Structures are given as C-alpha cells and as structure tokens.
Amino acid sequence: MNKIAAFFHFEQRGTTFKTEVLAGVATFLTMAYIIAVNPMTLEAAGMPFDGVLFATVLVSAVSSILMGLVANLPFGLAPGMGINAFFAYSMVLGMGMSWETALGAVFISGIIFVILSLLKVREAIVRAIPLGIRYAVAAGIGLFLALIGLKSVGFIVSNPATMVGFGGITPTVIIFLMGFVLTSVLVIRKIKGALILGIVSTSLISIVVSLILEATGGEGFVQAPSQIFALPSLSVFFKMDLMGALSAGMILPIFSLLFTDMFDSISTFVGVSEVGGFIDKETGEPENVGKALLVDAIGTTLSGLFGTSSATTYIESAAGVEEGGRTGLTAVVTGLLFLPFMFLSPVLQFVPAVATAPILVLIGIFMVTPLGKIKWGDFDEAIPAFLGLILIPLTYSITQGIVWAFLTWTVIKVLLGRTKEVPLTLWVIDFFAIVSLVVGG
Q1: In b/e form, how buried is each residue of 211-238, taking b as 16+ CB within 10 angstroms?
Q2: What DSSP assignment string belongs to 357-394?
Q3: pLDDT category, 283, cuts 50, 70, 90?
Q4: Is residue 126 pLDDT above 50, yes or no?
Q5: Which stretch of DSSP H or E encloses residue 20?
Q6: Measured between alpha carbons, how far is 350 from 79 in angstroms, rounded to an integer?
Q7: What pLDDT is recorded for position 285?
Q8: How many CB atoms lie within 10 A of CB 102?
Q9: Is 11 exposed, middle or buried (0-12, 13-18, 19+ CB in 10 A)?
Q10: Can you list the positions of beta strands (E) in 138-286?
C-alpha cells in the first residue's frame, strides 16, 4: 500500500487509497454508457456489435490505465461521442468508404497525434484555430448527435415537402420520451451513473411494452438474449485497411479526426484540471499535459488497431475529481472496471436503440454549452462559427462544418484587410481543406 501511495504521490496530492478507488468508481459510472452506445453507433456503419463492444472495452481499459500510470492524472478515456458519429455517418455512410478504411484513418490520425505530441507542436495548432470555431464545432457535433438520436427512434423523419418533419406518436416515440424525461431528471438531480441508469430503465420499459404488444397480437421489438456471457469477439480486431486510408481523398477525413480528438482532449484537460486544481501556476497549462496528450494519442492509435473510432479523454472524469480523485489511481480503477464487460456482449447487444437515443440527445445538450462563449456581436467571428455550428447537422457531416467554418473565417479576414490575423498554420489547414474538397469532388 505504501508503494502505491508513493507511486501516485498521495501525500502531495492530499488524497487516500479509499478516496481514489471511490473516485474511480464514480468516473466509471458516468462513462459506462459508452459500452453500449458506441457499438450501436458503429453498427450503423456495418460493423459487428460484439466486435466493437470488445474493442470499446479494451481501448477504454488500456487507455485509462495508461493515463493513470504515465500521466498520474484522474482522467478516464474511451471512444468519443461525436467522433464515433463522424466515423459512422460521415466517413462510412456519407463518403462511402469501408469501415476497414475508416479504421485505417483512425490509426493514421493517432500516429500523427503521437508525433505532434512528441514534437510539442500542438500549441501552434491550438493557437491557429479561432476560439469561436472551436466552440461552434463542439456544439455542432452535439446537434448532430441529437439529430441522430431523434432520427433513430422515428421522432424526426424525412419529409419530401419540408426535408424533415415530426414522425408522429408511436410506441417507440413514447418509450423514447419516457426514457428522455426519466434520464433528464436523474441528470438534474446529479445521480451518479445517471446515463447508464437511464439506459437500463428505458431498456426495461421497452421490454414491458414489447411483451404487451406480443400478448395483444402485435409484433414485439425486443428479443431476450439467449445467453449472458460470451467470449470476446475478434471480428474487428486488427482489421483496418491502412493502404486504403493513405489515398489523397482521405486527407480531410484524417484531419477532421485529428482536429476533433485533439481539441476535445485539450478542452477536457483544461476543464477537469480547473475543477481539480491541476493547473501549473507558471505555464497556466494543466499539469503533465504533454504526457496526457501523448496517452490520448496512443489511445487513438490503439482504437484503429483494435477496431473502434478514436478514443479521447472524457469530460465525465470531472465526476471522479468531484469525489476527491487527485491521482492516476482514479484512472486505473476506472480502466479496470471496464474489463468485465468484454464478456457480457450478449446482454448489452440486447439493449434496444430506443434506450440509447435519449442519451444521444442529452449528450447533445451537454455539448452545446460552449455556444455561450462565442462573441456573437463580433460578426467576423460569429459568421464562420455559425456556419460550423449549423452545417454539421444540416449536411450530416462534421467535415463540411469544419471546412466551411475555416475557409469562411479566412476569406472574411482577408477581405477586411486583416490578413495578419490569419496564422500560417491556418493557411496550411485551409490548403488541405481545399485540396480534399477538390479531390472528394
């Protein structure tokens, strides 16, 4: 026990073994929804549920444990929401690439992220991206997730006259609304594990409704699993297509993955570090941010190898910090708690889409909060930010939102005679964006 305390610097951080373990449990409970939601999201791209579930659990466990051991920070990692939607709906379904090629793109983005972390050039990239666009893209991804959730249950449907419309009241929509309200109340009351409890509760409601429909001559939509435990599936393990991901048309998708992962991680590090007091007084940066970003990059690289969308640091880590977690042991405990779920794929596969849809909408709500930080009165900043925000859900593509936000921001600055405000790094990013648009046709 003394060796553990010394390794994680309990005394310097003012914490104890018990506090760190409880904090790890708290972080896991707030992140656990990803075990079911990520496989269901990537299943839309044609990937096998049980294979993605194994990859999700393995990436989450290994990345979180590495964060604790290498960076000694209480941050949990897992495949990111928003990035998984980009993977499934933009890259595979939107661009028509295979999921194997998309995994290759994840792997390449991870390698680039590792190199940038080792060379310490992330600061230049961070400075190059206007703050307003960063906030807008995060919020736009949130709107995108909410749209996916509402569409998956038929709440929103296509309409030839108005493009989209309300799908009407159906048993599925009613279950969705019940689950959404119930989970919202749990979140508002700050119940630990609110999202995973919401998934379980909505799944149980779905079972009851399905049984009632079957008993009255209707058609049920929930099938009970034939077994509880199963060996992990290797159906997506090391199945990436690296050569396919190295084509010219993959430049922008890879950059989009890198951009989303990097800035999601940086914003999470800053936010959670502020809560826990992990800010270096001299630099103003989170403590051990270099090591933390390197672990995050390794997590993304492993994601491509193991068979899932990019891993990222979770803002839900704040739950563990609020419980008193101050060292990497919190992250290690979080990672270890993921491992048993690699044997529970039959049960988790039984979770219906209607049970995860409320979570997608709520995560969308969480992700739009940065909109308040945008200077809407400064139109040279607000116009590009708004394009990034609105084009992501309307084009069903995170890439399009990012590209047009960057290009519009640059063009406006040039036409206003303020070219000096456009850093060299952003010119390079704009160049690759244009090339990718031309190549992509």
Answers
A1: eeeeeeeeeebbeeeeeeebebbeebee
A2: HHHHHHHHHHHTGGGGGS-TT-HHHHHHHHHHHHHHHH
A3: low
A4: yes
A5: helix 17-31
A6: 20
A7: 64
A8: 29
A9: exposed
A10: 156-159, 163-166
State how far the Cα of 287 lies from the Cα of 121, in Å rounded to an integer. Answer: 17
Better-scored residue on pLDDT, 190 or 177: 177
146 touches 360 (CB < 8 A) = yes
Greatest alpha-carbon pair distance for the chain in Å reads 71
- Here the tokens at position 304 are 């491509």
Residue 39 CA to residue 310 CA, distance in Å, equals 13
**Closest listed residue to residue 36, CA positions, set 364, 353, 348:** 348
Nearest-angstrom CA–CA distance, 94 and 90: 4
Q: What is the pLDDT of residues 308-366, one digit of tens each?
A: 999 998 878 877 887 788 999 999 999 999 999 999 878 777 778 888 889 889 888 88
Tell me the β-bridge partners of 159: 163
Grouping H, G, I as helix, E, B as strand and the rest as coil, residue 327 is coil
> In terms of Cα–Cα distance, which of 158, 188, 219, 195 is closest to 351?
195
The pLDDT value recorded for residue 252 is 78
Q: What would the two tokens of residue 62 be?
A: 């290994």
Residue ranges covered by each domain of the chain: 2-229+250-440
* Closest CA relative to residue 109, chosen from 260, 255, 238: 255
- End-to-end C-alpha distance for the chain, whole angstroms: 60
Residue 131's Cβ-count burial label (10 Å; 0-12, 13-18, 19+) is middle
The whole model's pTM is what? 0.78
Two tokens, residue 106: 């994840």
For residue 428 the two structure tokens come to 């390079």
Give dist(CA 425, CA 441) in Å, integer: 25
CA 50/CA 229 separation, integer angstroms? 12
d(CA 53, CA 39) in angstroms, rounded, equals 5
Cβ-contact 245, 276 below 8 angstroms: no
- DSSP string across 245-291: HTSGGGHHHHHHHHHHHHHHHHHHHHHHHHHHT-B-TTT-SBTTHHH
| CB atoms near residue 77 (< 10 Å) | 33
